[in-house]
Design brief:
Layout lengths: L2 E6 L4 H14 L26 E7 L5 H10 L5 H6 L1 H7 L3 E3 L6 H19 L3 E6 L16 H7 L8 H11 L3 E4 L9 H10 L2 E4 L6 H14 L3 E11 L1 H7 L2 H19 L4 E8 L6 E11 L5 E11 H21 L4 E2 L18 H14 L8 H5 L1
Helix pairs in contact: 1-2, 1-12, 5-7, 7-8, 9-11
Organism: Pilimelia columellifera subsp. columellifera
Protein name: Inositol-3-phosphate synthase
Pfam families: Inos-1-P_synth (PF01658), NAD_binding_5 (PF07994)
């Protein structure tokens, strides 16, 4: 199944790590560590192979991928030997990257994006395209957008800008018949009008905000406290981020969107909202790496007060990149199987998943396994047997 992976923010750290990793996997130069679709419960012939993924994308920058990869080598994110080995392939991907369209109206911009996606599909004879947003986090939109129906929104696109950039991309993706993934806390497809458009066009979408670090740990620990009937009084987190993501999240609007996404898991798991504070601080010296320190205060039998703390050190791009590949493969298979609209079964990958999804990681994992197994055509080899 020939699948296009169209990356919005294609020259950013996450995207460049994803593309470099894909090229390395194709060449047999790296293991599939971090790719959950390569685990036995998920692996199967109904998912597109790494050699069936074709990369394109939009970005406002024009720095060549090879140069961006070199900066990630210097930052300790990518191995120099690996980047050198796939340098020619990185240069070849350049032919499928486009500048983000600039137009007088959002309706015109959407038409230009649709044209870019159609040309990409034709050039590589693709069965499906999955548009994946890995651009910078946006401020949360105002409530008026949530009240617009599709007809009203479509008419408004001919006037002054009404949609945030991520939602422009979602609209264009659906118009072009593409699946859509928002790996950020931005609005993306999470507007009733865009949900209607996805259903009308028969395409799937999922998101929001990839679960790669502190919130991943929260989604494991919070169910533990709930199942042991231990009362959490407070959960405080301090996040230190560098790089472009950290710089963007230093701004009040994007920071508020990110914090809301990160905090949502606690209340959904516990059934109540403890005192919760999340701080995000920009530390330029950290580069593409991040550190989170969390302090959990809880009460046990007879009101005995206790606490737990943990520290997470991670490289955001290296944590996110394999999940981008997983999502491209699964969403493409979902579209092939006729799934459309929101995919809550992919909650395993997100802090703030679409639809009605279980909040705990274990339940999300079980849901993901059943979902992916259900995408296999009738009579396809069993995934466990396939991996034996």
């Amino acid at each position: 199944m020939r699948t296009g992976m169209w990356l919005v923010g294609a020259r950013g750290s996450v995207a460049v790590t994803t593309v470099t990793g894909l090229l390395a996997l194709r060449a047999g130069l790296a293991p599939t560590t971090g790719c959950v679709t390569e685990l036995p419960p998920l692996r199967g012939p109904h998912l597109p192979g790494f050699d069936e993924l074709f990369v394109g994308g939009h970005d406002i920058m024009d720095t060549p991928l090879s140069k961006r990869a070199e900066t990630l080598v210097a930052a300790g994110v990518l191995p120099a030997v690996l980047v050198g080995a796939v340098a020619a392939e990185l240069d070849a991907v350049e032919a499928d990257l486009r500048p983000l369209p600039q137009a007088a109206t959002q309706a015109s911009a959407i038409a230009m994006i649709v044209r870019d996606l159609a040309e990409f599909r034709d050039r590589h004879r693709l069965d499906h395209i999955v548009v994946i947003n890995v651009a910078s986090t946006e401020p949360r939109p105002g409530p008026e957008l949530a009240q617009m129906d599709l007809a009203t929104l479509t008419a408004a696109l001919a006037g002054p800008a009404v949609l945030p950039p991520s939602s422009v991309m979602a609209y264009a993706a659906f118009e072009a018949g593409c699946g859509f993934v928002d790996f950020t806390p931005s609005a993306g497809a999470r507007l009733p009008a865009l949900d209607d458009l996805a259903r009308q066009r028969g395409v799937p979408y999922t998101g929001h905000d990839g679960k790669t670090g502190e919130t991943l740990v929260k989604s494991v620990l919070a169910p533990m406290f709930a199942m042991r009937n231990l009362q959490i009084g407070s959960w405080s987190g301090i996040n230190l981020l560098g790089g472009g993501d950290g710089a963007v999240l230093a701004e009040p609007g994007p920071k508020a969107a990110k914090v809301a996404s990160k905090d949502r898991v606690l209340e959904s798991v516990l059934g109540y909202r403890p005192e919760a504070t999340t701080q995000i601080n920009y530390v330029a010296d950290l580069g593409d790496f991040k550190t989170a320190w969390d302090l959990i205060s809880f009460s046990g039998f007879l009101g005995t007060r206790m606490r737990m703390e943990f520290t997470w050190h991670g490289c955001d791009s290296a944590l996110a990149a394999p999940l981008i590949l997983d999502l491209a493969r699964i969403v493409s298979a979902a579209q092939e199987a006729g799934r459309h609209g929101p995919l809550p079964e992919l909650a395993f990958f997100f802090k703030d998943p679409v639809g009605d999804a279980p909040p705990g990681l274990a339940e999300q994992w079980t849901s993901l396994i059943h979902f992916v197994a259900g995408l296999a055509p009738t009579g396809a080899p069993d995934q466990q047997s396939e991996s034996a």
